[in-house]
Amino acid sequence: MNYRKWIVGLLVVMLCLPVWTTAARAASVQISIELDGESLSTDVPPYITRTNVTMVPVGVVSKGLGAGVVWDQASKTATISKGNTVLKLTSGSKSAIVNDASVSLDTSVQITQGRVMVPLRFVSEQLGLQVVWNQATKHIALYSNIEIGGPSTPSTPSVPAVSTPSVPTPVVPTPTVPTPTVPSIPGAKTGKAMKGAWVSTVFNLDWPSTASAGNADKQKKEFDSMLDKLQAAGFNSVFVQVRPSGDALYPSQIVPWSKVLSGTQGKEPGYDPLQYMVSSAHSRGMQFHAWFNPFRATTDDKTTGLAANHVAKLHPEWIVKADSKLYINPGIPEARQHIIDTVMEVVRGYDIDGVHLDDYFYPSNVTFADDTAFKTYNSQAIATKGDWRRDNINQFIRQLGAEIHAVKPAVSFGVSPFGVWRNKKADSTGSDTTAGVSAYDDMYADVRTWIKSGWVDYVAPQVYWSLSFSAARYDKLVDWWVNEVAGTGVKLYIGLASYKVGDTKQTAEWQSGDQIINQLKYNEKYDEVSGSILFRANDIVVRDPFGLASLLSFYFKS
């Protein structure tokens, strides 16, 4: 009988051991919290759950964040309110109520040591704060002075993120600072030089925020904060959109000031944003690549609100309305030269590391009214309009690359085309894909010719699909692009879709950060893959689904 009691007792101890060790491990982690640089005290230590959610006492929310908190013991529901935002979190529930809308959660309210504990990241981000987690120091930094621009993003589980928010504002170097080489990251297991992030300025998506309109100091602080967080996550280069909509984020003699700076196109912002951004990047040892939308004139089909010197007003004969946007017609030589001139203005005037084009050539799957241009500017008597369009883009790429390298040979010139050049069904040498659109057939971008002719220094195809997406699998496309650049001297950077991670509209494989990490690991197979560029910055440093920044930091630096 005593033997049986001993066995039962031992089993109880063994069953409880995982719980005790987990609790002991959580208690041993000393987590500190600060808001805008000021430390926040807690009466019960924060802890991290098994699902990697950081929990804090509700007092942190009420005292530290200035929110109203009401706890209903009967329903075990915490109601948190600040401004127009009202959150309701109920113990045991897998969802929260945010302004009457249901939002899924990994972890809701918990009761620990008699205290109500809530998920810090979820609550903070719903209240308009940014949350940055430093894994090395177990430190959480909350920021209230950075507004998130662009469309709303899906709420995601609270997962720590890596950053170094305490980096002081650097001394901005003079414009004559030498162009740095791409910094290598000690111990990087990939050995890849390029670790880039796209920074979208159109619609104020990544920078500057709409709340910073006309406020130069705020815009500078926002940019510095973004760079600090990207660098902490392991990035060494930014590709910043400096010509988002036929306008400029620099004082141009050709095109108007961008409206993203002040809310009004043509309005001077009080400083030179491009000069500041280049200096800010270089002071951190990061490369700065100036990203241009080549043939997009506007983001809608209206001319109201455009500055008097916008291309759509100065040269309406160059403009084609398509896909509810205004495009500059690539078939008109003077129009192509206008775009080249705007790029060269930046090349000559700024210490940039590269010129970067996206895939705004001809719009795909829409009618593009260029019959007159085809007849007027077809001196080579090219038989088909498709071949003529491709020749227009070929001339543009060749001429732009030649002009850049004639002025500054060290400035790299590259293009980020649509990820599928051609499907194998249309061309036996194309990729093993069945994509509905291809760069060659729909955007008239013959990237193969650019590579083989050496007109570009690199290509960064937008391979924005998963490793299991049958129509355009990531691995098959990387294989194809590797074969295209092999032996050419043209570098290959792969464009990755960080914007899809955690988006509830995406399929299951995007509901964790593993898809991006596995894609980066796949790139390690090939010496021809010289790095990666992720689209886009805010999805890493602000939205940070499933702790993507932490995962990237671990991958890049470990």
Give a verbal description of the structure.
There is one protein chain. The protein has 558 residues and is of the alpha/beta class. The chain has two domains: 32-144, Copper amine oxidase-like, N-terminal domain (Copper Amine Oxidase, Chain A, domain 1, 2-Layer Sandwich); 194-557, TIM Barrel (Alpha-Beta Barrel). The protein contains 15 helices and 23 strands. The chain has helices at 2-28, 58-64, 120-126, 216-232, 273-283, 311-314, 333-349, 371-376, 385-407, 439-442, 447-453, 474-485, 514-523, 537-541, 548-557; strands at residues 32-35, 38-40, 47-48, 54-57, 68-72, 77-82, 85-90, 95-98, 101-104, 110-112, 115-119, 130-134, 139-143, 194-199, 237-243, 287-292, 319-322, 325-328, 354-357, 412-415, 458-459, 491-496, 529-535. The strands form five sheets. An eight-stranded parallel beta barrel has the order 14-15-16-19-20-21-22-23, surrounded by five helices. A hairpin with a 2-residue loop joins strand 17 (319-322) and strand 18 (325-328). Helix 4 (216-232) packs parallel to helix 5 (273-283) and helix 7 (333-349) packs parallel to helix 9. The longest helix is centred in the N-terminal third of the chain and has 27 residues, at 2-28.
